[in-house]
Amino acid sequence: MSTRITRREFLKGTALGVSGLALGGRVFADVQLPKTKPNLLFIHTDQQHFEAISGLGNKYLKTPNMDRLMKRGMTFTQSYSADPVCCPARACWFTGRAASENGVMTNGLPLDPNMPDLGQWLKTRGYSTFYTGKWHIPRRDNASGFTVLTSNPSHLGQHTDGVVSRSAQAFFSNYSGDKPFFFSIGLLQPHDCCYWITSHDHQKGDCPYPSIKDELPPLPPNFHYNVKEPKVLAEHLAKLRSKREWTDEFWRYYIWSYYRMVEMADAQLGRILDALEDSKFANDTLIVFTVDHGDGTAHRKLVTKFFTYDEAIRVPMIVCLPGSSGGGRLDKEHVVSGLDVAPTLCDFAGVEAPPDIRGRSLRPLAEGKSKEWREFVVSECLISGRMLRTPEYKLVAFKDDPVLQLFDMRNDPWEMTNLAEEARHAGTVADLRKRLAEWEGRLKVNS
Length: 447
Description:
Layout: H1 7-12, H2 15-23, E1 39-45, H3 64-72, E2 74-76, E3 79-80, H4 86-95, H5 99-102, H6 118-123, E4 128-133, E5 147-150, H7 157-174, E6 181-186, H8 193-199, H9 231-242, H10 248-277, E7 285-291, H11 310-313, E8 317-320, E9 329-331, E10 336-337, H12 341-349, H13 363-367, E11 377-381, E12 385-389, E13 393-398, E14 405-408, H14 426-441
Parallel strand pairs: 1-6, 1-7, 2-9, 3-10, 4-5, 4-6
Antiparallel strand pairs: 2-8, 7-8, 11-12, 12-13, 13-14
Helix pairs in contact: 7-10
């Protein structure tokens, strides 16, 4: 293990990363990985929109601690949930297998008992494994693969996350094992927005607090929606919208409130990072930070998740190399997936990944050693839905539904024009459907 460094020394080491972020530079020369196996720290929040980070230019919230991670590592801006809802996304993280393979195709369905999770896998391969916070993988006791420091004492992040961050703080102060550790930390915020929404479903008025009206974020460009959708998706979104008739100002108040919950998660992240930086593990710990799924945040007059538009399915992803001061890098080119979490952690651990894994290790991209990458990622949604995303296009298809969606993501990032039925895009649709069929053909789905 490395010698202890203070937080001041740690932050001083990020100066080069700050410069790289500001200039959009690529700095790799000073990256020095540990000579022994690194510790693995996996931190995840719940229901965080992909742009709900001030380091990405969002001026309506302040997330200094997520910004710290950005300054230390590689931020992947084209990162997608493997399935935009809690349980499936988390099962995909911890198995590296698609939801239709691991069995968790929607909330409440059990994980295949014969499929190992990352805790079980790394525990038998030289790592001490620990967990604190939200787990939410049905009928899989995380104690079978982890030493559980604390589970969710409440379903509300405002009550839970402080306990979680303090348990992490205690861990970094006290861990004295002779093995490297894999530590997974599940923060619940900003998921409390779900309860905020429920309590305001039938609100008719404007923002109830005149003093903050000048602070309300603007409505997104795609607040008004009119694109053609597959039946299953359209029916699901109609149900979401039917519960509320908010005024435009109240929608803006929702976004404002949601951002405050993101800031609550960021504050607890700060306690975790401070504890790590003041510990003897500061220089030899890999950090992976991501989110299970996003939130509608008023795009298309939607909240929550369970749909294939970027607001729900695109998520933050940051990888901070152990001991690196060459951070502050944005990867806007490569499409990555929640399925990449397991192979990434296994790669840094120096162990083989579980069998039939569907993701790829992000290590070469994080280290700047390779530009070769996959051509697309696939996410599943509402059991029968599939989203295929290339750097240029997004295809959305539902089983036995003739309505497809095709979006030009470079020229139409708000997904406001469905190109699927335009004759000039027929070749693109055919090509992407072929790739999707080939991807599905490789899956090993239990009947």
